[in-house]
Design brief:
By secondary structure, the protein is mostly helical. It contains 13 helices and no strands. The relative contact order is 0.18.
Length: 286
């Protein structure tokens, strides 16, 4: 029961991260020590169904709670308290670094390891530098072409969400689908709450193809990542280290920070970073 509750909380953190541009749900999964377990569960769901579902169900529940309920809270927190809120996420990210470093400890550092770390560091920072715009509003009217586009966007977004350090929401933003899809989720939940069947059907026309694409993307990229970790584990872990180190830099580059009281902001930010760091280390412990 305790492990299930912890996994629900982990899922909530991953879900929140996936809706904030610049923050990677994959990185959060790494930081909390369940990334490799999630990949294994996704790629062995048929052969180890019961074991896989024991992990996936709580994580999915947590992510769903975050996407539906906490997204409004996080959005408000980012608007009113941007510095402490972002420092909380940076603390969650940095807190997972020691656990990943232990994966490569005792192994000699080779040129390919350095190249992998630097390349993926540059990838994340480069995306933050050149992908900070909100993108154009996409056409989500129901139609065969738009269904295919939404399915493709779901594949791309989900695939990038699974990769540590890469923000799926930022990729959607670059494609111009971030705000329309988020608005569609909110409109669907509002229609569902008011039993507005026209709104529910309209929302399903957007969310079903996008969700199916996301499911397909997660399964496909999970198999690829499992193969990489099996063939080149040290290179993969050094690439993740590069991604984790780059993520706080990307968060800073993607945000405009404002404050009203410097002393209060500093104290609350330090506390937020500390809470995130400790929580990440505790959740990442084996």
């Amino acid at each position: 029961m305790i492990e299930a509750l912890c996994n629900i909380f982990r899922g909530m953190v991953i879900g929140i991260a996936n809706i904030i541009p610049g923050v990677s749900g994959g990185t959060m999964a790494v930081a909390m020590g369940i990334y490799d377990k999630l990949i294994h569960a996704l790629t062995h769901i048929k052969s180890e169904f019961k074991k896989s579902m024991k992990l996936l169900v709580p994580v999915i529940i947590g992510a769903g709670i975050a996407l539906v309920a906490l997204s409004f809270v996080i959005t408000t927190a980012l608007e009113k308290y941007p510095i402490p809120t972002n420092l909380l996420f940076i603390g969650l990210i940095v807190g997972g670094l020691p656990a990943v470093c232990r994966k490569v400890k005792g192994n000699p550092l080779k040129p390919q390891h350095v190249i992998a770390a630097l390349a993926f560091f540059a990838l994340v920072v480069g995306m933050a530098l050149f992908g900070g715009g909100k993108g154009a509003d996409a056409d989500l009217s129901f139609g065969f072409v738009n269904v295919l586009i939404l399915f493709g966007c779901g594949i791309i977004a989900a695939a990038t969400m699974v990769i540590p350090g890469v923000s799926g929401s930022m990729i959607l933003m670059l494609l111009g689908y971030y705000e329309p899809v988020v608005a569609a989720i909110k409109d669907f939940m509002t229609a569902l709450a008011h039993l507005d069947m026209d709104g529910v059907v309209s929302g399903l026309g957007i969310l079903v193809p996008f969700g199916l694409g996301a499911l397909f993307g997660i399964v496909v990229i999970a198999k690829l990542i499992e193969w990489i970790f099996r063939k080149y584990p040290l290179v993969a872990f050094w690439a993740i280290i590069g991604l984790i180190v780059a993520s706080p830099v990307a968060i800073v580059l993607l945000n405009t920070f404002t404050y009203t009281n410097l002393a209060v902001t500093i104290i609350s930010s330090v506390l937020a970073f500390g809470v995130g760091f400790v929580v990440s280390m505790k959740l990442g412990g084996e």
